[in-house]
Amino acid sequence: MTGTLTPPVTAIDEDDLESLARGAAVLGTGGGGDPYIGRLLAAQALREYGAVQLVAPAQLPDSATVFPVAMMGAPTVMVEKTPSVERIGHAVAALAEHLGVTPTHIACIEAGGVNSTFPLVAAAQLGLPLVDGDGMGRAFPELQMVLPTLHGVAATPMSIGDEKGNVGLLTSIDNHWAESLARSLTITMGCAAIISNYVMTGAQAREGLVAGTLSLCTRIGRRVEQVRAEHGDAVRAVADELGGRVLHTGKVVDVARRTTTGFARGSAVITGAGGDLTLEFQNEHLVALRDGRVEVTTPDLIIVLDTDSGEPVTTEALRFGHRVSVLAAPADERWHSPAGIALVGPRYFGYDTDPVRFDARERP
């Protein structure tokens, strides 16, 4: 990564939330939930319970018991079905009781506006440190699509609950079945649920997580604010932080979006000087095509920012007339392994193309 050197982040308090949520929404590649909602809930929890300590994965003892917590479902639904602070912490408590173990740390399973802040809520409420990392280095739409899956960590047992107080506990034969069963329950719960799963030892978390994600999110968010205050190019600053580049800048001229099978699915067309760029998404942006030619695909990151402010734009917030810039950035290298491509490559999502990796070279 490039960018201005800053002190390491060792704790998150209310003053850090805006930067953290902004950076998490950048890494969320359009998904991971509404950053504003996540920030509001985290602020409430931090005001009530105090700041949350961050612990690097390398500092985890082998004996640690790490509990990730996340929102599962369509981000568009979460805007209207906001859970309470208590429900987020209860997802961890219910699974811990079922397993008969005591959590020592909370973790993020993905980067995203909600899924990087909901774990803060649980950590504050339960008085536990939060691991400075996540299971993807970005966001993906399905439950099995995490690096711990590649390292043999089981998704279940898991807890799943809704905003009303219904809670279920699942055990599955593999992580793909966990996705299928939990997705059905999520749809029954109104397409938005809180889950806790992928419980890991400290050794498993050190191996399976992407280290430093929350520090990176906070750094990105702060840099956008700083560059904007200096009347600089916030979009370019984000690209620099991620080692990425700007693919396209233009105006959104078409958005087709629907909530189906628990996902926000659709496409958006952005017209600009370089022609038309079409983005295909399933919660997250998965494929970018310029005039029908594939430019970048999952697992590399495809990020949409407001051109003027550098603020991340989620898939549910894309609107006709919005002037945006599209960035591409490299994913964690483990996603480009054969097993990683099988799990999150474009063909898994039904696109008839092999992966097209991020190319750092600027277009002529």
UniProtKB/TrEMBL annotation:
Family matches, as SUPFAM superfamilies: CV3147-like (SSF160991)
Organism (species): Pseudonocardia alaniniphila
InterPro entries: S-Me-THD-like_C, S-Me-THD_C_sf, S-Me-THD_N, S-Me-THD_N_sf
Gene3D superfamilies to which the protein is assigned, alphabetical: CV3147-like (2.40.390.10), CV3147-like domain (3.40.1610.10)
Domain S-Me-THD N-terminal, chain residue ranges per copy: 15-171
Domain of life the protein comes from: Bacteria
UniProt name for this protein: DUF917 domain-containing protein
Segments forming domain S-Me-THD-like C-terminal: 174-355
Signal sequence coordinates: none
Entries under Pfam families matching the protein: S-Me-THD_C, S-Me-THD_N
